[in-house]
Amino acid sequence: MRAFLKGVRAAGGTPGFLLKTGTSDMNVVGPVWRCPILAYGPGDSSLDHTPHEHVEVAEYLRAIDVLEVALRALACSPAPH
Q1: Which of 5, 50, 69, 80 has the smallest count of CB within 10 Å of its CB?
Q2: How many helices (H) and strands (E) does the chain have?
């Protein structure tokens, strides 16, 4: 989570959190793997899976920047024990 917070801030954003319920692979694998799960992506989550779902190009490009920072941070962080 820290890596993604760092990525969002580096891209000029303010991190926010949503509790998303419902069915997803994360609801299945999180408990089985006994690890926290994080979902990140551009777009308005209230429009997910609706006819009005869309992503602005600028937001998509910003999400790529966030992911790049987060993945670099994860690659450089020590493995958990």
Answers
A1: 80
A2: 3, 0
